[in-house]
Amino acid sequence: MTLLFWLLFCAFIGYSAGRKGRSRWAWGLAAFFLSPLIVGIVLALMPDGDGKKETRPAPSPGGNRDSGRREEKYCPECGYLADAGEQYCPRCGEMLW
Ligand SMILES: [Zn+2]
Asked: In sequence order, which residues have a C-beta less than 8 Å from that of residue 75 and are 6 or more positions away?
């Protein structure tokens, strides 16, 4: 039964190595021949591969600030910033286009 656990550990380490962007077979074999415990600790301490697979969504500058912004337009007569829904300027009564 010990051998079965040993192999399970090796398989798990190979799987973990693959998830970190490293060679599954190399790590699995290393675990098999050395010790799954030691290799597992080494693997856990190692940083993730070169991160080619991981695509972190870069925070877009400006964000989604524009999405909640109202449509506005300037009154041609007095320059009042009126809501786009307004047909006439609330300040001077000029028709807004
Ligand atoms: Zn106006």
From this structure: 81, 82, 89, 91, 92, 94, 96
Specify whether the CB–CB gap between 42 and 35 falls below 8 A: no
What is the mean pLDDT, run by run of 10 residues, along the chain of 97 residues?
Answer: 83 90 91 86 80 62 56 92 92 91
| The one-letter amino acid at 59 | P
Q: Sketch the domain layout of the chain as residue ranges.
A: 2-45, 70-97
Instruction: State how far the Cα of 84 lies from the Cα of 62, in Å rounded to an integer.
Output: 23
Give the Å distance between the CA of 66 and the centre of ligand 1.
25
Query: In 10 A of CB 93, how many CB atoms?
Result: 10
Distance (Å) from CA 74 to ligand 1 centroid:
8
- Å from CA of 84 to ligand 1 middle: 13
> What are the beta bridge partners of residue 95?
88
- pTM of this prediction? 0.43
